Amino acid sequence: QVQLVESGGGLVQPGGSLRLSCAASGSIYNFYAMGWHRQAPGNQRELVASIAIGGSTYYADSVKNRFTVSRDNAKNTVYLQMNSLKPEDTAVYYCTLKTTVKPGYDYWGQGIQVTVSS
After folding, report:
1. Which run of H or of E encompasses 97?
2. Where does residue 11 fall: left (phi above 0), alpha (psi -120 to 50 degrees), or beta otherwise?
3. Of residues 34, 13, 20, the one with CA closest to residue 111
4. Residue 10 in contact with residue 114, Cβ under 8 Å?
5. Do residues 116 and 12 lie in contact, with contact meaning Cβ atoms separated by under 8 Å?
6. Rounded to the nearest 5 degrees, what angle is found at the Cα of 61, between the Cα atoms of 69 and 99?
7. Which residues pair with 114 in a beta bridge?
8. How confident is the model at residue 76 (pLDDT cuts 50, 70, 90)?
9. Mean pLDDT over residues 18-46, rounded?
10. CA separation for the pair 64, 25 (Å, rounded)
11. Share of the chain above pLDDT 70, in %
């Protein structure tokens, strides 16, 4: 089993920044990519950003040029730097991990709230 624990969420004003962290632990033998999903009230979960084992990254159009995903392999930790935050970024953010190239993520964190409001 793999455990994913998020930290760094909270309340921030529009235009502000937050950095989310996700520490992975457990049986991490197969790792293809780690990602950040989010879910706002009334909306479906969406993939915000991901970073693959080779280092390639993906960003949803809504966060391009504002969010940056990175990882520290030595610490088994992935980060999401969020800049120029907007009220529409308000959501529960989930750290996720996939073990194969197939669609879908296999492991999910418990989620952390990010609220952008003045």
Report:
1. strand 91-98
2. beta
3. 20
4. yes
5. yes
6. 45
7. 10, 91
8. confident
9. 90
10. 29
11. 97
